[in-house]
Amino acid sequence: MSNDDMLLPRTANPTTQRPVPRWAKKSPPKSKTAVRTPTKTTWRKIHAPRDPQHHAQKIAENVMDAWYQSFGGSSIDIPIGTVAALTLLRQPEGVGTGLADWILNLHPHELPQFFKEIYLGHWISRPDLINRALRLHDWAWNPNPDTQQLRAVHAVTNKAINTGLLDLTGHEDPYMRAESDVLSPLLTGLRHKSDKKWRGEYHTPACVSDLMANMTLDKDFVQPGMSFHEPAIGSGGMFRSTAQRLRDLGHSTHDFHWYGNEIDSLSAGCAAINAIIWDLGPRCLIGCADSLHPDDDYAKARAEAKEAFEERDRHVDTATTIIAHRRALALFDQLMPRTETTAA
Question: Domain segments of the chain: what residues?
Answer without folding.
Answer: 49-287
